[in-house]
Design goal:
about 450 residues, mainly beta, Jelly Rolls, TIM Barrel, Immunoglobulin-like, 3 domains, nine-stranded mixed β-sheet, 5 helices, 28 strands
């Protein structure tokens, strides 16, 4: 049985969720959905019109077709097109929803949805993945990625390719954060090993900003303008209440029409109740620099918010791209320990150098980045290696550079801060062109 939906959109339909309800009779074993629209590019536009499909069955969401591909969507009990979760083909009302991310003038945009229902037997066995347990390595500094994508959303590579890339580049952990879907997480968990921790996540990809959810296996409703009428602060609360970590992603990235929803537009979430912000997304860029400046402003306002990085990889990145990795001090190499350290800010971001920040007060209280020292005299120390001769070390206090000096590839430095001189301090390594190579989370001063 075939069901067809057709509609014509204009720019007035931008940022809508358009439902298409159909009935699935008992005995249906397979649903196949084809989606096409025209024109892909409106006249005179450099950016293409962008839509995705969200599909729900009577029990709730089944997945998202974030990048429209030629092979369409297949849903069976045994296995599904990437982006969708396998499971019973439940009888009752299903919904194929068109999510309009980018519609550009002047042309009308016509789309067609073709739903084919089949009751033919499905020969495929149910696809299952075994979660791998890894051996503990104990306390230490671990390097990894908190933001990456696969074929389950809009990447050019599959989950095994992403995991192999992490292994090839000697990462300790990798996180799969596909757009508005968690369908790839069982597979990524099955590919872990003692050499690599694989972590779960999801990128909440709304029309007005993106956020990375770390440490989840649960799908979160991302459509803020549905009948539920919840806000982004409420969505962040839902994430945090579940035990996952909410991270505001690339907030100063270009937005519409260049990158739909990529710029953070939630005025009540600057930073709001977000405990972390991605200050280095992809390769180092001017918008990352703007995010660092905004982050420093938030710290001066009294927010204790952790800084993170994400490669945002959608395939093998350009080897010349200067991407930041999260280097985290955790009690062990486990998802729980890594995310607890990220929450506390016990990390730095680096495109290569090691950069270890520590502090000790006159009374002997010690700290590393993310910790809070009492407001008394303190010596702040930094040890680095793997830098380039001629790079510039910056010691920042309350967002202002107290000292900068050219450095060798490895070395150490220290500064004495008087009582009340600092609310927070951190260290950066930049090159002669002011491009970032490494940046630490702060050490704070005040009530512990």
């Amino acid at each position: 049985m075939k069901i067809t939906f057709e509609a014509t959109l204009s720019v007035a339909d931008l940022h809508r969720h358009i439902p298409h309800i159909f009935e699935v009779p008992p005995g249906t074993t397979q649903i196949h959905v084809e989606f096409s629209y025209s024109p892909r590019y409106s006249q005179g536009q450099e950016n293409h019109n962008q839509m995705s499909l969200s599909i729900a069955d009577p029990a709730g969401p089944r997945g998202v077709y974030y990048l429209i591909r030629d092979y369409g969507i297949n849903i069976t009990e045994a296995r599904c097109t990437p982006g969708f979760n396998a499971g019973p083909v439940r009888p009752g009302q299903w919904n194929v929803e068109v999510d309009t991310y980018r519609l550009l003038p002047p042309d009308p945009i016509t789309y067609t949805i073709e739903v084919t229902l089949s009751s033919d037997p499905i020969p495929d066995p149910i696809q299952t993945y075994e979660k791998k347990q890894i051996a503990s390595r104990g306390p230490g500094w671990y390097r990894g990625d908190l933001h990456a994508h696969s074929l389950h959303s809009d990447a050019s590579w599959d989950v095994p390719d992403l995991v192999q890339y992490a292994r090839d580049h000697k990462l300790d952990f990798i996180t799969l954060t596909d757009h508005n879907t968690v369908s790839g997480l069982p597979q990524v968990e099955s590919l872990a090993g003692d050499d690599l921790l694989t972590m779960g996540g999801m990128e909440l990809t709304t029309y007005y900003g993106h956020a990375v959810v770390l440490g989840t296996r649960k799908w979160f409703e991302w459509r803020l303008d549905t009948d539920d009428h919840f806000t982004m602060p409420q969505l962040a609360d839902r994430v945090l209440a579940s035990g996952a970590l909410f991270v505001t992603a690339h907030p100063m990235a270009p937005g519409d029409p260049e990158c739909s929803g990529c710029h953070w537009e939630y005025e009540d979430m600057l930073p709001g109740n977000s405990p972390a912000v991605e200050i280095w997304n992809g390769g180092w860029s001017p918008y990352n620099q703007m995010t660092v400046e905004m982050y420093y402003q938030w710290l001066n306002e009294g927010h204790k918010i952790s800084a993170t990085a994400g490669s945002d990889m959608h395939g093998p990145p350009d080897p010349d791209r200067r991407g930041g990795r999260n280097v985290v001090y955790a009690e062990e190499l486990s998802e729980e320990a890594i995310l607890e350290a990220v929450r506390k800010g016990r990390s730095y971001i680096s495109a290569g150098p090691d950069l270890i920040l520590s502090g000790q007060t006159q009374s002997g209280i010690e700290a590393i980045n993310g910790d809070t020292l009492p407001p008394e005299a303190a010596v702040i120390s930094v040890h680095w290696s793997g830098a380039h001769e001629g790079d510039i070390l910056r010691f920042n206090v309350n967002g202002r550079t107290l000292e900068k000096r050219p450095i060798q590839a490895a070395g150490e430095a220290s500064w004495t801060l008087e009582p009340g001189q600092a609310k927070w301090c951190n260290v950066e390594i930049r090159d002669a062109q002011n491009e970032m190579w490494a940046i630490t989370n702060p050490i704070y001063f005040g009530d512990r």
